[in-house]
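Second attempt. The first submission of SWIM-type domain-containing protein had a stray character pasted in from the spreadsheet, which I only caught after the job came back as garbage. Lesson logged: always re-copy from the clean sequence file. Corrected sequence (114 aa) follows.
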Amino acid sequence: MNAAATTHQHTNCLRCGRTLRSAKSIATGYGPKCAAKVRNAPVDLSDYKAHQVASARELIEDGAIIPLRSVIFIAVSSDGTETYKTAPTTCNCPAGLKGSRCYHQLAARLLLAA
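This time the job returned cleanly.
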């Protein structure tokens, strides 16, 4: 994910809603405690390839996946040109439309498990 793809700055944590103070937290959208909970979320990663896990974590760290409703998220594409609606079991990205598991779905699972 390139830095130009995520220019939105968050003032409140996307997980807990607390005010963010550090520049890193504002850029990612998660405070340090919530970021740690997301990193350590108990999700079975065995169904995903290593590059999908890395992409999902990068999507979260870049603040490029934002909650829309209880289990639905808006995720930015890897090149930053498109956004997709995603949930833990479905996504409207090209891979998701083909019925494949995508890293957007994994990112949604990680966020919900945290």
